[in-house]
Amino acid sequence: MHPAPSLIVFTSLSGLGFGLLFFLGLGLPEKTGLVAFVLYALGYGLATAGLIASTFHLGRPERAIHAFSQWRSSWLSREAVLAMAALLLMAPHAAGAVFFATPLPVLGVLGGVLSLVTVFATAMIYASIRAVPRWNHWTVPFMFLTAALAGGALLSGNLFWAAWLMLGFGVALILHWALGDLRFEEAGSTMGTATGLGRIGKVRLFAPPHTGDNYLLHEMAYRVGRKHAGRLRAIALGLGAGVPVATLVLLPAGYLAAGLAVVAHLAGLLASRWLFYAQAEHVMALYYGRAPG
Amino acid sequence: MTMLPARTERKLGLVIDLDTCVGCHACVTSCKEWNSQGYGAPLADVDAYGDNPLGSFLNRVHSFEVTPGGGAPAQIVHFPRSCLHCDDAPCVTVCPTGASYKRVEDGIVLVNEDVCIGCGLCAWACPYGARELDPAEKVMKKCTLCVDRIYNETLPEEDRQPACVRACPAGARHFGDLGDPDSDISRLVAARDGMDLMPEQGTRPVNKYLPPRPRDRLATAPARPNLDAAVTVEGGLLGWLDRALSRL
């Protein structure tokens, strides 16, 4: 897919924000006053910045309110509803902690859990798309959730958990790439099944329907070279998981270790998300003679 | 409403005959022309006469070369591709606003252009690439099965079919109710062993494609003319000139 900057920023930042809100909602750590203000502001800020960024990829953002209506069938709608519910439910708990030194744990836990379910819904938007075999796999929600939890643990100061969760995120990345590389063939869609002409013999594209570009090719037939992708994977894994684990384990616990880990993790996360979109092979490309690989 | 109806009263759709299609693109242009007025905003044509034209089309014709095994010659198959109005349409369920819906009365899948936010998710969900975002209107465009023609009492009876079916000079496109086993179109599908595209994607498409009929296979290679016997030795002035020039 043509990696849309707005979507890369949206999923990365909102995942991070909701991950942080999960830990804060569960009272891990239990903070009040100014410290709580900074933490909740960061959580709310990241989550809403991400959600606002997502509206930039819409063709008609002025109608975005309609996106809350089809939660019965659409993961995108569910994500919108869950995000609103999480942020609204958590608000009294956050306000209570910041201004009155009285957190409201019931709302906090509810908001925190809903925050995590929101991240799950975001991942399911992609995982529910069967036409992209690489996305249609359990490793996608696994990757999104571990990213949110690892980043959230880091930002909330739970450095011990952060180190383990960063390791988990690294494992998730590796699994998503390794198993994802096999998915297209596993799904069984070929030029033969796409045209139905496989019953006659070997199919190849003789003439495309148009000489120029079109929406489908621009969006869904993006190609990133394998060598390029390999290097990016190494960078994403190294910065996204490797450096955070190393800094948290080797450096004494404190702002330096956490700070370095956050910067590296965010860079790696953005790289991994860019790859997530760039390496998506859509079965529609079979009609244009583009088998993956 | 993006819940799929449990069942539809009719299953209107198209049948494309891959044996007869000549790849003339008449269906492409007639569809584009019809959908530049009528239902929804006109289909865009950005930079139409410039270096990089871009436009949304609802129907596109590919050409494929199929090579059967066993040394048989390859065949060219022209392949029109448009929305298949699937029974289990993934483009309908993913829509967050309800703009993408499947009609209960005839099974046609449509886009409500007043509600569509242009998120593009339906285009991602469709394995057939049947949906395109209009570059001018920024809403999703797809085959409407000419819903504004088929019920239109102001058109003469023979024009109350999709523009592409009406325009096809080879008779390669057919329209009818594929949910009725006694309809002409259903009998055609049964007679010609009509097929689904990408059945493994689980979309249960309504449109069917009729496979090309098997081509003749020659038992021996065709006779080749003996061209050596065509060279004659010329006499006279021209013959002398020919020999003299060859020696130079």
Descriptive notes:
- The complex is a heterodimer of chains A (293) and B (248).
- The mean pLDDT of chain A is 92.
- Chain A has helices at residues 5-25, 33-55, 75-99, 105-127, 139-155, 159-187, 191-195, 215-220, 226-250, 255-278, and one strand at 201-207.
- Chain A folds into two domains: 1-128, no CATH class; 133-293, no CATH class.
- Helix content of chain A is 68%, strand content 2%.
- Chain A is mostly helical.
- Chain B has helices at residues 26-34, 90-93, 121-125, 147-150, 163-167, 184-192, 236-247; strands at residues 12-17, 45-46, 54-55, 59-68, 75-82, 100-102, 109-111, 132-133, 140-141, 173-177, 208-210.
- Chain B has a three-stranded mixed β-sheet with strand order 10-1-11. Chain B has a two-stranded antiparallel sheet with strand order 2-3.
- Chain B is built from seven helices and eleven strands.
- Chain B has 248 residues and is α+β, with helices and mostly antiparallel strands.
- The mean pLDDT of chain B is 92.
- Chain B is 19% helix and 19% strand.
- Chain B has one domain (12-210): Alpha-Beta Plaits, CATH 3.30.70.
- The longest helix of chain B is centred in the C-terminal third of the chain and has 12 residues, at 236-247.
- Strand 1 (201-207) of chain A pairs antiparallel with strand 4 of chain B.
